[in-house]
Amino acid sequence: MQDNLYNLAFERSVLSSIVFEPSQFDELSVELSKDDFYLPAHQDIFQAMLTLLQKDQPIDEEFIKKELIKAKKFDEQVLLEILSANPISNTKAYVDEIKDKSLKRHLLTLTTEIKRVTVEEELPSAEVVDIVEKKLYEITQDNQTSDFKDSPKMTFDTMEYIKEMKARGNSVLVGVDTGFKELNKMTTGFGKGDLVIIAARPAMGKTSFVLNTVNSLILQGKGVAFFSLEMPAEQLMLRLLSIQTSIPLQKLRVGDMNDDQWSNLNGAIDRMNSVKLFVDDQGSININQLRSKLRKLKNQHPEIEIAVIDYLQIMQGIGNQDRHLQVSEISRGLKMLARELEMPIVALSQLNRGLESRNDKRPMLSDIRESGSIEQDADIILFVYRDDVYLYKEEKEREKAAKAEGKEFTSTYIEKEEEDAEIIIGKQRNGPTGHVKLVFQKKLTRFVDAPGFAQGVETVYENVDTKSANIDMPQVEMPPI
C-alpha cells in the first residue's frame, strides 16, 4: 500500500541529479512542485533549490545547506543520502513516477474530504459535487498555489511579469484581445481572472459586439467557450459567417447569394472547421452546471482563453432564494471561476428600462438589473449604446400617434447602412473609464473601429460587400437547421 504512494529512492535520485547538473532544474522546476515529494525533508530541499533559482545563485551542496540552515530545516543525514545517490541522465521517467504517486496521495486525501463534507457536515449533494469537481480540477492541473504567498515569491512573479511585458515591446495589449484597437488601448485587453460585464438595452447589439470579439480571437487561433442561453448555436454561426464574409445576415438566412458569395462562404466554412470554438446552447443552466462544464472543457482544451455567457439574467438560480440573492450568487460564482481558471469570463447583461425615460439615454452603472452584486464583482463593465436605435423608435411612435389622430405623417428619419456606436467603459478596476467610438454595420451585424479614430488614419475594411449591403432584404426568421 505504502509503496504505491511514494518512492524515496526516486526522489533522492532526482534531487541528486539536480545537484550534479543544475542546468536541468529550470525545466524540472516547472514539472515538479514541492508537494510532489513525499518526505518533508525532500520538500524542504526542493524548496531551497527553488529559492536559489529565484536568487540566481548556484544550486550546489554548500548553497543548499546554507539556505536550509537559514530556514532552520537542515537535516545532514538526508542531504548526505541525496549526495550519495546515483544521479541519472534521463530524469523524465523518474519525474513521471513521482508525479503519479503524488497524484494518488492527493486522490486519497480527496476521498477523506468527500467523506467529511458528505457525512460529517451533511452538505447538500449539489455542493458536494461542486467541491469534488473543484478539487479534482486543482489536482489534475497540478495546482501549485498555497494559502499565502510570501513576499519573495510575489516579487519574483511580479518581476517575471514585468520582463514578459517588456519582451512584448511595450505593447498596449496585455490581456485577451477585444478585437477593437481603441478599446484595447483603454483596457489593455481582458485580463486573466477578470469578470467582464457587457450590458445594453435590447436591440443595441451586445451579442453582435461580443461575437466580433469572439471572431477576432478564433481567427487568431485562440480557444473560446460560448454559453448561449438565448439563441441556438446555428444562429451564432450564421452571425459569425456574416461577420467574416461581409454577406448580409438576411441573405445567409435564406441562402440568396451569387456565385462569388457562395465561394466566399465556402472559404469561411473551411476556416471555421478548424477553429477552437465550443458552444453550449442548452438554454437553461445554473452556476454549478456552468462551473462543471467549463472546468471539464478547460481541462480537455487548455487552449481556451475566454468564456462568454449570453446572458447573465437568463441563468437559473439555485434553491428558492430571492432573485436578487440568486443573481448575487451567480455573479460572485463567475468571478471566482474566472480567477480559478485564470481566464476572463465575459457575461452579457440586460439593463433596466427606466433609463429610457431620461433625456440622455446613455447607460450608467445603476441601470444594470440587480446592479449591486454585479457592479461589485465585475472588473470591467462595458455598455453598448447606439443613438439611432432610440431615434428610430421615436420616429415609429410619432408615426403611430399621427395615424391614430388621422393626420398625415412625413418621416424625417433616414435609415443608415452604418450607424455610429459607443462603447462606454462604466467601470474598470485597473484602468480609466471613458468612451470608445465604433461603427455598426447593420446588415452584417458587425462592429468595426471608427474610421480615423484609431491611430489617426482611415481604417480600411476588407471584403465589405457594399453592393449587397445596400439591398433591402425582408426580415425573415431563421429556418430550422
Description:
By secondary structure, the protein is an alpha/beta fold. It folds into two domains: 150 residues, DNAb Helicase, Chain A, CATH 1.10.860; 203 residues, 3-Layer(aba) Sandwich (Rossmann fold). It has a nine-stranded mixed sheet with strand order 3-2-4-5-1-6-7-8-9, with helices on both faces. Strand 4, helix 15 and strand 5 form a beta-alpha-beta unit. It is elongated, with a radius of gyration of 28 Å.
Radius of gyration from CA coordinates: 28 Å
Counted up, domains total 2
Q: State the low-pLDDT regions, or none.
A: 453-481
Order of helices and strands: HHHHHHHHHEHEHHHEHEHEHEHEEEH
Task: Output the strand order for the largest sheet.
Answer: 3-2-4-5-1-6-7-8-9
In the CATH hierarchy, the architecture of the largest domain is 3-Layer(aba) Sandwich
Q: Which CATH class of the largest domain applies here?
A: Alpha Beta
> Considering the protein shown, what is the CATH homologous superfamily of the largest domain?
P-loop containing nucleotide triphosphate hydrolases
Major sheet description: 9 strands, mixed
Cα(first) to Cα(last) distance is: 56 Å
- Alpha-beta classification: alpha/beta
CATH fold group of the largest domain: Rossmann fold
How many alpha or pi helices? Answer: 18
Mean pLDDT: 80
Specify the helix fraction band: 40-55%
Net shape: elongated
Number of strand elements: 9
Strand content: 5-15%
InterPro entries: DNA_heli_DnaB-like_N_sf, DNA_helicase_DnaB, DNA_helicase_DnaB-like_C, DNA_helicase_DnaB-like_N, DNA_helicase_N/primase_C, P-loop_NTPase
GO molecular function, one term: DNA binding
Organism: Sulfurimonas autotrophica (strain ATCC BAA-671 / DSM 16294 / JCM 11897 / OK10)
Domain SF4 helicase: 169-454
